[in-house]
Amino acid sequence: MGKSAKQKGLGNKEAYQRINYLYQAAHLCLQQSPSNPEMCRFYINTMRSVAEKHVIRMHPEIKRSICKKCCMLLLPGITSISRNKKKGERYTVVSCLECGSVKRFPWGKNYQLWVEKPAAWQPS
């Protein structure tokens, strides 16, 4: 594949497909056997290493559904607990049941992810 194809963002198509496959496999594996999370953890670990190797940014929804500490897929009720807090600044708290780590996601009126901002899509 030539340089022009890589500049258009088509160079890592196989890597994106592999990341997608590993994420879906981890999700399915955890839904079928929640008592055995090691296979799911292996798939997520492999997915993260492929993304690092090819320098690929994962979508925020995928990043939000993975525990950074123990590499576990966060499924509400199976591997995580999700709660909404409304005191002061409103946010969602997601707690991992495997390692106990906590993630907080704000959901205020003016809050936007970087990907959703128009500056993210302008060529540099």
UniProtKB/TrEMBL annotation:
UniProt entry keywords in alphabetical sequence: Cytoplasm, Endonuclease, Hydrolase, Metal-binding, Nuclease, tRNA processing, Zinc
Designated name of the protein: Uncharacterized protein
Domain of life of the organism encoding this protein: Eukaryota
HAMAP family in the record: RNase_P_4
Species assigned in the record: Littorina saxatilis
GO function term, MF aspect, one: endonuclease activity
Family recorded in the similarity comment: Belongs to the eukaryotic/archaeal RNase P protein component 4 family.
GO cellular component terms attached to this protein's record: nucleolar ribonuclease P complex
Lineage: Eukaryota, Metazoa, Spiralia, Lophotrochozoa, Mollusca
Coiled-coil annotated spans: none
Signal sequence range: none
Gene Ontology BP annotations: tRNA 5'-leader removal
